[in-house]
Amino acid sequence: MTIAITGATGALGQLILASLAARDPSAAPVALARSPERLAQTGVEARRFDYDDEGSLAPALRGVETLMLVSSSEVGKREAQHRAVIAAAREAGVRRIVYTSLLHADRSPLSLAGEHLATEAALKASGLPHTILRNGWYTENYTASVPPAVSHGAFIGSAGQGRIASAARRDYAEAAAAVLAESGHDSRTYELAGDDAYTLADLAAELSRQSGREIPYVDMPEADYAAALAGAGLPASLAQAIASYDTGARQNALFDDGRALSRLIGRPTTPLSASIAEALRQTG
């Protein structure tokens, strides 16, 4: 079975490739990327695959039986890009697609949900066997803020007391690899999230414990949080989007307690404490 992974140079795509190799060192997945030359030293077969260049899609998928469609990073362009990939997969004779969607996309208040739902609908309309992995939040989305939190002595956000059941990106990658490598997942939709939920106040308390410094969580109105992010150098549109995701978290949009993720990977998901420890090590 030939497996191909889109977005193979991205953070999740690289981890899925590594997880497939760990499961079966003899496996030879195909890496699909806009800049395949970045994978030249890895020994992995890499093919050019540009979401915005429809002519590059079907040729790159020839001989592929199972396609891992990692959702595009270009919010606002995803629906059209994904539809083009699905059409190319049909043209190339791909037999199965696995897609990374959003946790509870059918009822999520997050602005990200619409494009994911549209892609899910396109998959169903395609007639191709498929599996939908509705990924929850990556813990790295929050631990990326560990360095400034340590530097400034506060962890800021707009999530209030919302419960966040995040997991490490590698947990989601292992789940994707399991679904790609195993049978029995067709027509399934998995709501994937971490085993244990926390609030951002809990995160700040754990960060304080591990760093040996008092780092409180400071909850802010969405507009103020967006302004703070923009003031730190983020583009205004991205800052507003991130702040709105926290507002969704306040409504428990990032919470799920079904534990489907840990069942797929056959182990508990990575605890928050381990992710914070890793972020602190990287901070130095």
Annotation keywords:
single chain, 284 residues, alpha/beta, Rossmann fold, UDP-galactose 4-epimerase, domain 1, 2 domains, seven-stranded parallel beta sheet, two-stranded parallel sheet, 12 helices, 44% helix
Topology, please?
Elements lengths: L2 E3 L5 H13 L6 E4 L11 E4 L8 H4 L5 E4 L8 H15 L3 E7 L10 H14 L3 E6 L4 H4 L2 H7 L2 E3 L11 H13 L6 E5 L7 H12 L5 E3 L2 H10 L4 H15 L9 H6 L6 H12 L1
Parallel strand pairs: 1-2, 1-4, 2-3, 4-5, 5-6, 6-8, 7-9
Helix pairs in contact: 1-7, 3-4, 8-12, 9-10
What does this protein structure show overall?
The structure is a single chain. With 284 residues, the chain is an alpha/beta fold. It has helices at residues 11-23, 57-60, 78-92, 113-126, 140-143, 146-152, 169-181, 200-211, 222-231, 236-250, 260-265, 272-283; strands spanning 3-5, 30-33, 45-48, 66-69, 96-102, 130-135, 155-157, 188-192, 217-219. It has a 7-stranded parallel beta sheet, with helices on both faces. A two-stranded parallel ribbon has the order 7-9. Helix 1 (11-23) links the parallel strand 1 (3-5) and strand 2 (30-33).
The run of helices and strands is EHEEHEHEHEHHEHEHEHHHH
Broad structural category: alpha/beta
Which term fits the overall shape?
A: globular
* CATH fold topology of the largest domain: Rossmann fold
What profile does the largest beta sheet have? 7 strands, parallel
Number of domains: 2
Give the low-pLDDT segments.
none
* Total count of strands: 9
Radius of gyration: 19 Å
CATH architecture of the largest domain: 3-Layer(aba) Sandwich
Mean pLDDT: 95
**End-to-end separation:** 43 Å
CATH H-level superfamily title of the largest domain: NAD(P)-binding Rossmann-like Domain
Q: Give the amount of beta strand, in percent.
A: 5-15%
Strand order of the largest sheet: 3-2-1-4-5-6-8
CATH class annotation of the largest domain: Alpha Beta
Percent of residues in helices comes to: 40-55%
